[in-house]
Each structure stands twice: as C-alpha cells, then as structure tokens.
Design brief:
single chain; mainly alpha; 2 domains; about 65% helix; about 0% strand; rod-shaped; disordered N terminus
Length: about 260
C-alpha cells in the first residue's frame, strides 16, 4: 500500500483550521493506520506547523482575554474606591469647586449676620422705652410690620408682598429696604411731595445708604401722619407745634437722634 501522507495530513490541517474536532480525530485515526513497508508510523506535525497552528494561537488569545476579563471587576472597584476616597491621584490642575463654594457660603453668612445686626438695631430704635426689644426673626417681623405701616401712610394703596420667614436674613433685609424705597418714591410723586422731599436728598432715594433711608423713611412717614391729623408733632421731643411749622421735624433732628442712639 502506498503511504498517503498528504491525503490524511491535508485533512488533518484542514480540520484544525476549521476547529473540526471530529475531522481531527478521523484524520489522525486514518493516518495511524497507514504505514510504508508494513511498519506503523505515528502521525506527527513538524515544529514549523505546530508553531504556526492557528487553533493554538486562537486558544491562546482566548485564554489571555479570559484572564483580562477576570481582572476587570477588580480594576473597576479600585478606580471607584479612588474616586470616592480621593487618593491624591487627581489632576492637581483640575481642582473641584469646593473652594469657590466655601467662599460663597462664607460671603452669604457674613451678609446674613450684617442683615440681622442692622435689623435688630432698627428694632431697638423703633421699640418704645420699657418694652422688650425683639431679636432674630422677631426683630425682622417687628421692623417689617412697622415699615409696612409707615409705607401705607406715605403711599396709600401700596401693597407690599409677603415675607417668607424661612428666607435667608439678607433676603428679608433687602425686602424691607425695597419697601421703604418704593414708598418714598411713590410719595415723591403724590400730593405730599413737598413735605416728603424735605427728607430726601437731591440724588434721590436710590442713592441713600440704608441708615439714611431708615431715618428719612420714618421721618417722612411721621410728618405725613401728623399732617393727616391736622397738626405736626416733633419727632424728637414730642412737643406739639402749629400746623405749617417747618422747623417741627427735620432730617437733622432725626439724624441727631440716631447718632445719639448708636453712640450708646
């Protein structure tokens, strides 16, 4: 019998390249049964064929891919842990906005503290002697109530919005100041313009500081209130004066009273 090495060998290589397990077994079995001159020859592949075996290369690649997949969960967990804990691996040039947020919070706290302090000072100035001086939220409520009452005298029909007690102090303070500005501006355009104008500088209401606005607002409100009653009373001494006495209440009187108050 002639030795058909190429026949079964070709079939073997073809079966290997197509991943045909049955074909591989059949080719090996056929090859093992063929022998020249009655001698049995075990089928073998030369070194070059084994090194270039596509099946071997494919299996090796699959094995390597499996190892990478196995390590992937660990790598992901490590990356997440670093991101949450902050291990110092972050880019130093890409800093978070924590510093900016902290600075903003500090500015807002400072504004709230100033608003609370100014409002409590006004509450003390407006509180009658011998009565308890409100503080905190009570001071805001008392000052706003007095402001709304005076605004109704200066600008009849003006309806201020409500104040949310949960709002930050700086916002409640701004709301009170805006009520005063709008009421004075409305009064300067109304029938009591000449009387109110005595307490407002030429630059206008918007150019006034908060302290000056507080003084002018209350002085103008008191003057209009007394005029409406038919007589004018001094905002400093409480001394009754004749109607039309322009020396009864002046901005200088109010400023003097406030300076004395803040020097205590």
């Amino acid at each position: 019998m002639a030795f058909k090495k190429k026949t079964w060998g070709s079939r073997l290589l073809n079966a290997i390249s197509t991943n045909d397990e049955e074909g591989v077994e059949e080719a090996i079995r056929d090859g093992s049964q063929e022998a020249p001159d009655g001698e049995r020859v075990e089928p073998t592949l030369d070194r070059r064929t084994r090194d270039e075996d596509p099946m071997t290369q494919c299996m090796a690649a699959i094995s390597g891919l499996g190892e990478k997949i196995d390590t992937l969960p660990g790598l992901v967990a490590e990356a997440v842990a670093k991101a949450l804990a902050g291990t110092g691996d972050e880019d130093p040039n890409n800093k978070p906005s924590d510093d900016a947020d902290k600075s903003k919070r500090e500015d807002e706290k400072r504004q709230d503290d100033e608003a609370r302090s100014e409002t409590e000072d006004e509450a003390e100035c407006l509180t009658e002697e011998g009565k308890r001086i409100p503080t905190g939220d009570a001071a805001f409520s008392a000052v706003r109530q007095a402001t709304v009452s005076t605004a109704a005298i200066l600008a009849p029909g003006y309806k201020p919005g409500t104040m949310d007690s949960a709002s930050p102090s700086r916002e409640k303070r701004s709301g009170i100041i805006e009520i005063r500005r709008l009421a004075l501006e409305s009064a300067l355009a109304g029938p009591n313009k000449a009387l109110v104008a005595r307490y407002v500088p030429r630059k206008g209401v918007r150019a006034m500081t908060n302290d000056a606005l507080f003084t002018a607002f209350n002085a103008a409100g008191e003057a209009v209130r007394n005029q409406n009653r038919g007589s004018v009373f001094s905002g400093v001494t409480g001394r009754p004066e004749q109607a039309g006495d322009k020396a009864a209440v002046t901005a200088a009187d109010i400023n003097e009273r406030n300076r004395a108050f803040y020097k205590r």
